[in-house]
Design a protein that fits this description.
Elements (H helix, E strand, L loop, with lengths): L5 H5 L7 E12 L3 E5 L7 E4 L7 H5 L6 E10 L7 E12 L15 H5 L9 H23 L3 E2 L5 E2 L11 E2 L26 E3 L4 H11 L1 E9 L12 E10 L3 H22 L1 H16 L11 H10 L3 E4 H10 L1 H4 L16 H12 L3 E7 L15 E9 L3 E8 L4 H10 L8 H8 L5 E7 H9 L20
Helix pairs in contact: 4-6, 4-7, 4-14, 6-8
The chain binds adenosine-5'-triphosphate and magnesium ion (3 copies).
Adenosine-5'-triphosphate binds next to strand 11, strand 15, strand 16 and helix 14.
Length: about 475
């Protein structure tokens, strides 16, 4: 079908030419002005109809939400707010939308309401802008890695190992869940399951990506990951997309350099390529801010905030230094934190992370060298024997956006760690094999894609930056 995109038409191409556009009606005013949107841009194109020339029954079907096709001439617009418009010569209805029942009316709907209409919410300006930004960020992620010598590996979705040992896994099984075959001792007999063993949906592609880094050098995986997070926060989903680069011969410093450069690069990409959507989202946020008490308002408009990130260095702070800051800070002393930080070794909660970023350093922070006890088994033990070469990147308004580390490359240390944590060596024989054959210093990190989209769009809830959010008790769509 030979149609024009509204984005192209608004850029001034095709002036005074015959054009054809298909899209969804946003509004239809005075039986004359149709605001049409086809998803290619946040802006609508105005289509001017001469109702005397068009069939009345046809015009009756033009209502908010209807899918239509117009043909006509692109002319300069005399009206305010748009540079060009289409003088409609003919109009076709692809599909009408009953105005009585169409849920997306030309008014402001709450985000909560729109979550219940996840199949239609992309028709709103906010969600179309967010989803175009999501797509642009995804492209920027691949572009960054492809231009920097990384290979894309597709790690498996169904795995036989629970990488983190965190227990938040979704099991995959073909056994009858009500009446599974049992062994003599009463436990479930997984030898009769499809794979002949217990399997689950992946919580991270890291371990498999590591194996590929130890042959291709620099790799990344970017796919869905699944965690049965039993909490309802605005930062957690049960199904989210994770970007996980893994690099041979990179130590923790090189890993931190890469992560910082990567984030700055993808945010620069959207600053350059998503101007209209960013301006729309920024304005939306400013309107929302006006309804909040002054103390809760964000100090920086969205675009300025993104530029601040791309133009300034992230602050690198060791866990030990951070704990000192937290122990002595006012909110901790005045018991304003829900969890009071008393001693070295405590895991940071998001209130602490956000304090460090938003109040103390006032910039993104990379925390490194965490206590071994609160981090995963595969992280490289430091010479002090109690900290590991881990790093988390903390962002304003978000908290943790990246978790990464230098990986333990020494077989004996790794095995000892696994033993202490009761991780079955037999389950991970392939992982420990890497330390037997050509082992080397290597590192990587995981960045939750939705947290990146959340930050770049200024949205407040992770449910609003993924098309169909999966959270406890919610898989309607
Ligand atoms: P958090 O402390 O926020 O629960 P985590 O430490 O459990 O995160 P990691 O295992 O380090 O998460 O995963 C790497 C990254 O994946 C995190 O830094 C975050 O950006 C993202 N992430 C983790 N869990 C989720 C989730 N449930 N939903 C969305 N993103 C997530
Ligand atoms: Mg978690
Ligand atoms: Mg964490
Ligand atoms: Mg983490």
């Amino acid at each position: 079908m030979n149609t024009n995109s509204i984005k192209d038409l608004l850029s001034g191409k095709h002036l005074l030419q015959e054009v054809t556009v298909s899209g969804w009606v946003k509004t239809f005013r005075s039986n004359r002005f149709i605001a049409l949107n086809d998803g290619s841009t946040i802006q609508n194109i105005q289509c001017v109809v001469d109702f005397e020339k068009l069939d009345e029954s046809l015009l009756k079907q033009v209502s908010t939400g209807a899918a239509i096709k117009v043909k006509g001439t692109l002319v300069e617009s005399q009206g305010k707010g748009q540079s060009v418009e289409i003088q409609v010569a003919s109009l076709e209805i692809h599909g009408g939308a009953d105005p009585e029942t169409y849920p997306i009316q030309p008014k402001k709907h709450t985000l909560e309401f729109l979550r219940e209409k996840a199949h239609l919410r992309v028709r709103t300006n906010t969600f179309s802008a967010v989803m175009r930004m999501r797509s642009a960020l995804s492209f920027a992620v691949h572009q960054y890695f492809q231009q920097n010598g990384f290979y894309h590996v597709h790690t498996p979705i169904i795995t036989g190992s629970d990488a983190e040992g965190a227990g938040e896994i979704f099991k995959v099984s073909t056994l009858d869940s009500k009446k599974p075959p049992l062994k003599e001792d009463g436990s479930v007999d997984y030898s009769e399951d499809f794979f002949g063993k217990e399997t689950n949906l992946t919580v991270s592609g890291q371990l498999e990506a590591e194996t590929y880094a130890m042959g291709l050098g620099k790799v990344y995986t970017f796919g869905p990951t699944f965690r049965a997070e039993n909490s309802n926060t605005s930062r957690h989903l049960a199904e989210f997309w994770m970007i996980e680069p893994e690099m041979a011969f990179y130590d923790l410093d090189a890993n931190m350099d890469l992560a910082e450069d990567f984030i700055k690069s993808v945010l620069s990409y959207v600053l350059e390529n998503c101007k209209d959507d960013l301006e729309f989202l920024e304005k939306r946020l400013l309107d929302e801010e006006k309804t909040k008490p002054a103390a809760e308002r964000s100090e920086m408009p969205l675009i300025e905030k993104l530029k601040f990130i791309t133009d300034n260095n992230f602050k690198r702070v060791s866990y030990t230094e951070a704990i000192e800051i937290l122990r002595n800070c006012k909110p901790n002393k005045k018991k304003k934190f829900k969890y009071i930080i008393n001693e070295w070794g405590a895991d940071l909660q998001s209130e602490h992370e956000r304090f460090l970023v938003e109040k103390h350093f006032k910039c993104p922070v990379i925390l490194f060298d965490y206590p071994a006890k609160i981090k995963a088994f595969y992280m490289r033990l430091n010479e002090d024997g109690k900290t590991v070469r881990a790093m988390d990147i903390l962002f304003p308004g978000i908290g943790e956006i990246v978790g990464g580390s230098q990986r333990e490359e020494r077989l004996d240390v790794l095995l000892e760690k696994m033993k202490a944590l009761d991780i079955d060596e037999k389950e991970l024989w392939w992982y420990t094999d890497l330390r037997k054959y050509g082992s080397a210093v290597h590192s990587g990190f995981g960045l939750g894609f939705e947290r990146l989209v959340l930050f770049a769009t200024g949205m407040g809830n992770i449910r609003d930056v993924i098309p169909f959010p999966r959270t406890p008790q919610n898989a309607e769509f």
